[in-house]
Amino acid sequence: MDKLIEASKETRKKICAHFGVSKANVSQALKFQRNSTNAIAIRKMALENGATLYEKTTNQREALK
Question: Most buried residue, 1, 14, 18, 51, by most Cβ within 10 Å?
């Protein structure tokens, strides 16, 4: 099962500014396509700023609590 984090546009912009990275870099981190120290920090910041962690199942996305 794959995971993904959905964050608002404002949260993504805030993360880009904070870490000095591109929107593409943030997107890859939130889709768990990257697992660097920076990507982990990006995911943590997103979740701390109201983003939601989802786990993709067969045909659904379920919010993880």
Answer: 51
